[in-house]
Design goal:
This protein has 383 residues and is an alpha/beta fold. It folds into 2 domains: 207 residues, Glycerol-3-phosphate (1)-acyltransferase, CATH 3.40.1130; 70 residues, no CATH class.
């Protein structure tokens, strides 16, 4: 295979790490980052750590593991996870997860794998998030695969083909596992669903039939559950505006969401690594007509993700308030319920718009994972 066609989207290799880290250490933003990670120590302390890295593994061990641990110690109560036994066979996987936070979804998965001495994955990231050479250097040093989205419709097919080929090259050749979100952009309304377009993109590079093409990818669905939804206020406002007109992102909105997701309190976090998609699942999907095949496979992935999504008190409280029931009152106390209502009102106090509708949207974000578990349809106004 001609690997040169992947030059623009692949992560850096070891020989490119030191020049990239040198550029990072020369950026004025380093001082602010250093003061957050190492309060009381000068920027040169962090600069020396960066310049001591000579390989990607060095960077992930000395820098990224430290950064993610620091974020979690400051903003999370607990981190739990299950399913690492599925990595015992040593096979590489295409990890497909639900997507709630721009950075932390994949970063926490990498930390868990690192802790258990399992090779970390390469990470598919939209180029809309790569807003500067500084961020690109950090991301590509941290195994980022660039997903090209800022292109004309005419170019979409070509860029999707290259991405598909690169993912298959990594996983099928057992070079590296890859993480990718189940949809383009984060879930805003709490309803996690795999986009069929993602699966069609993955199939583009296959040279066999449907079953062979997807069995090569060894798909592992993963569910990520946060007690406090990352950027819940921003998501509420976006959904509120989207009901009235096309939502247009403000300048630097993605960067603001990244920083808010990192700094916001998350409470408890749970990651569930699920049983990889089986041959039987692919055989069943392949019995359908072409488009229905992708729908069937998406359903398999969604069932694994939604069935293992960890529900928290906030989810049960929001469901009972939104639907006017006490069905889950045994899962929380009156004090828990009041604390969540107070939290919601505090978060929405800075929002502009009809407050009853805002509260309805905010509650739906937290309630919809319960709806998914129950197999119900969400309220039409929450879709």
């Amino acid at each position: 295979m001609d690997l040169e066609k992947f030059e623009d989207i692949r992560p850096y290799i070891d020989t490119e790490i030191f020049p990239a880290l040198t550029r990072i250490t020369e950026n004025p933003l380093l001082e602010d980052i250093s003061s957050y990670l190492f309060p009381g120590k000068g920027v040169n302390y962090f600069r020396d750590i960066l310049l001591s890295c000579r390989t990607i593994d060095d960077f992930q061990v000395k820098v990224m593991a430290l950064v993610v641990n620091k974020i979690l110690s400051n903003t999370a109560r607990t981190l739990t996870y299950n399913g690492l036994d599925y990595f015992r066979d040593g096979k590489k996987h295409l990890i497909i997860s639900n997507h709630r936070d721009i950075v932390l979804d994949s970063a926490i998965i990498q930390l868990i794998l690192h802790r258990h001495r399992i090779q970390t994955t390469e990470i598919a990231v939209g180029d809309n998030l790569i807003t500067s050479p500084f961020i690109e250097d950090i991301a590509r040093t941290n195994k980022m695969i660039k997903v090209v989205r800022s292109c004309s419709p005419r170019e979409v097919y070509a860029t999707s083909q290259i991405l598909s080929q690169y993912i298959r090259y990594n996983v099928a050749s057992q070079r590296s596992s890859v993480w990718i979100a189940q949809r383009n952009g984060r879930t805003k309304n709490g309803l996690d669903m795999t986009e069929q377009g993602l699966l069609k993109m993955l199939d583009m590079s296959g040279e066999g039939d449907f079953e062979k093409n997807f069995s090569e990818l060894n798909i592992m669905p993963v569910s990520i559950s946060y007690e406090y939804e990352p950027c819940d206020l921003f998501k509420t406002v976006e959904l509120f505006i989207s009901r009235r007109k096309k939502y247009v992102k403000a300048k630097n909105e993605d960067l603001n969401s990244i920083l808010t997701g990192i700094m916001q309190y998350k409470g408890n976090i749970h990651i569930e690594f699920n049983n990889p998609v089986r041959v039987e699942d692919l055989e069943e999907a392949a019995r359908h007509d072409k488009n229905e095949r992708f729908k069937s496979l998406a359903g398999v992935i969604d069932e694994r993700i939604n069935s293992t999504y960890r529900l928290w008190k906030n989810n049960y409280i929001a469901y009972d308030i939104l639907y006017g029931t006490g069905e889950y009152s045994a899962q929380y106390s009156a004090a828990d319920r009041q604390a969540f209502v107070d939290y919601m009102k505090f978060k929405l106090s800075s929002a502009e718009g009809d407050m009853d509708e805002m509260e309805n949207i905010f509650l739906s974000i937290y309630a919809n994972p319960v709806v998914n578990k129950k197999g119900e349809k969400p309220l039409s106004e929450n879709r």
